[in-house]
Every structure is written in structure tokens, then in C-alpha cells.
Amino acid sequence: MNRNWQNLLLMFGGAFLTLTLRMPLGAEDTSAANTPDLTGRIEYLGIPLRERYPDGEFAYARNVWTMQTHEGRIYLGAGAYDNSPPAANAGPVPIFAFDPETGTFEQEFTVPDEQVGVYRVFSDGQLYAPGIDPREGWDLGNFYRKKKDGEWEKVRTFPKGIHNLDMAEFQGKIFCGCYGIGISEDWGKTMVLREAGGYRIHSFFQFPTALLASSELYFQKSKYTDGPAALLYRYVPEKNDFEAAPQDVSELLPDTPIGFTPTEDAPLKVCLIGTTPFKDRVLYRTRRYLSKAAAQYRMKPFGAYSAEVKDGKIHAVRLALPENIFVMDFTTWRTEDGTEKCAVLFCEGIAPLKQTPAETEAPKDQPRRIVRNHVWESSDGVNFVPLFSFEAETFARSFAYLNGWFYFGLGTGIPRDPETGKWTGGGLHEKSGMILRIPFSVSP
Predict the structure, then answer these.
(1) 66 — phi, psi (to 5°)?
(2) CA-angle at 340, arms to 335 and 44, nearest 5°
(3) For the ranges 19-33, 170-184, 230-244, which has the lowest average pLDDT?
(4) Which of 11, 77, 134, 334 is most solvent-facing, going by the fewest CB within 10 Å?
(5) Is 26 helix (H, G, I), strand (E, B) or coil?
(6) Do residues 270 and 225 lie in contact, with contact meaning Cβ atoms separated by under 8 Å?
(7) Which tens digit of pLDDT belongs to each residue from 236-290?
(8) What residue segments make up the domains of the chain, in order of their start?
(9) Are 339 and 7 in contact (CB under 8 A)?
(10) What's the alpha-carbon Rg for the chain, to the nearest Å?
(11) In sequence order, which ranges of 218-311 are alpha helices (DSSP H)?
(12) Terminal-to-terminal C-alpha distance of the chain
């Protein structure tokens, strides 16, 4: 609910250009072009959300925003919480899980919410889903939890938490982010609200030694900032509260050419999303909000980043991935010998002007374009190397790894009118929500 379309939302921006590489120091000379192509190994598992969200406008709500492994199953997140079409306010949302042993999807629960966009697994071994936009009153916010007995429950104790976009665990407490931050010392039975400036919290940076909450990054003076600034808040355990910890935008998005100079008349706002803890680091990507004035500059996609924390500040590097690709997701797992691994999912293809990533809807007189999706892996969260790629009719929005298989959830973008930024009324991909998997043995 309540995404603002006064500004044109370009989630990933720009058209694809020539694919080039920026490899980490010491890495072998490799490229996306020589990555093993595993298209022929794809196993299509189906579209479990099609009955709830049929083709047409509601194909957008089938977007698989997130995939999470938990107790031998793959959990899917779907829905749409925008007030505007397509698929406006698409709740309640069914939670489906794929069971590799039976090869079937099971609907385990239905959340009274418009969208499931994030899953977290905490030290209690339970699965959590923040309530992005509950279909209830605005006095309290929700999260949903799969308990150890296998039953799901709704927890509704987050004061003023109407848009709980992310959750974190730190020093035995759990945290929820909205216009302020909810803190619970008893796993959600009770929760206190910390204002944290009153800005919307989009994500948590959960490090082993520190917890930071991220609001927006502004590249120009705004009604919230006197100039370019990243609005961050650092948790102070002694006070059980958060304090402002602003940083320069360049520290969060290093080595990232903007392509123009943002101003109050042509503003640029960025949210840091997809935060994924890995060892002592956090991986993340971006969502960009451009005004119509700024959209004309055809900015390149920003890429992906890996951060560590020092003296309470975030220190980030931009991942050395190919240029002009759209980063979609991260995932982590352990190999049989306990080695921790992580991977990044990105896609390449042709993105028409002012549409979302690798948009597969071509003009009516042209065939649809095939999208190539890539998976690169890392053992340190900084240096990534190619694993494989595959072609699909649309881009893979999310992925997960379990027991020798990579699972992918296909998505669709929104074709938008270049003048109004509104949906054109068509062009949503019928393969949105398709789940596929590819066998791949990951070595230690």
C-alpha cells in the first residue's frame, strides 16, 4: 500500500549495453560469455499461485519476491501491496512451500496481508515473514511465524507497524522496521517502539557485532536532508534504542557512476534492499526512485554491494560483476562439509526505455526476447566467480539452493507509460510465478 507514483519508479533502470567485466584483483580472467549454459537441465515445476492469481493483471502478484529454504522445503513469497494497478492490494496471500521429496507444492498458510516479500530464519529455528501491509487496522503491525510444531501464527504486537518491511535478530532480541523500529525481548509477545527519526525503515544490516537500520539515501537536498545523505540508525544496546548514524552516500554505493547531477528539481532517491547476512558481511542491492526529470538520463543499473562494519559504520565495496546487468537476489547455504557459500543472481537482456529489468514484452510487431540469467558464487562475500547461466522467457526474480538443486522463481515487470509512469494496461508475462530448478553440485 502507498507506494508513491508521483515519481516514476525505475527499480533497476536503463537499457542493456555491451557486457563487460570488472574482475576482482587476483581473479582468473573469465566472463559471462564462457559461463556453463545449463538451459537444457531446467526442470519446470509449475506455477502454484496461478489459481489464486490468474493470468492478466494478477500475474503481477505471482512475482516470486523471495525464496527461503527451511527444514528441507522451499518457501515462496508473493502478492502485491501497491494501491495502484496492476494487482492492487493483492492480499490475502497464500504461503506455498515446495517439498523436494514429494515433488509437490503445499499451501501451508494464508496471511492477512497484501504481500510476502521477505523471509528470515532466526536462532530459535523458526521461519519469520514481516507483515508488509496487513489487511487490518493501522494501530499495530504484524509478522508471521512458522512455529516448531509446524503451525503458522500471526503476531500482532508492533506499535504503528503498518508497513513492516524487514526483520532482524540481534543479541537475543528481534526487530521490526516501519516508521520507527519495534524491539522485542520475548520473541514478539511484547514490543516497544523506537522512533528512529520517524522515517520508513526499508532494511536491516545485521552484522555479528552491530545492527543498523536503513531508511532512504538522498543524492540531493530534500525535505529530509540538507544535502546528499544516507539515513541510517545504529542500535545502542545500553539504551535499547537507536541513534542516528548518517553516512555519505558514496560510502554505501562506492564506485557507482550516477550519470547526472541530482537536484531538487531532478531528484534521485535510493533504498537499500535484499540485505543478506553472510559471515561477517552483509550483501545488498538497490531500488531507485527517479522523478520524470531524472529518468531522461537513462542511468545504468547500480549493481550489488558487500559491506562490513567498523567502528559502527558501514564500509562497502561494489561487487565486481558484469556491467549493465540487473541484480535480482542473493542466497546462502552450507556445503556438506560445513563450508559457508553465497551466490548472487542477475540477468542480462534488452530492457526497453522506462521499464523494469530485462522486460520481455517487446513491441507488438516483434517476438518476445529471451532473458539470460546468471548465478555467481563466493566463499568470502566479496569475490564472486561464475557458476552457470540459463535462458528463460522472462527473468528470474529470486532463487535458493537446497540439496544439489538451485530453485528459481520467475517474475514480470510493469510496462509503464513514459509520461505518467502508470501501467500501460498490458504486457505482464504469463510465466510470472513459474518455479523451476536446475541440478548443480556445489563443491566446497
Answers:
(1) -155, 150
(2) 55
(3) 19-33
(4) 334
(5) coil
(6) no
(7) 999 999 999 999 999 999 999 888 888 888 889 999 999 999 999 999 999 988 7
(8) 8-439
(9) no
(10) 20
(11) 249-252, 292-295
(12) 43
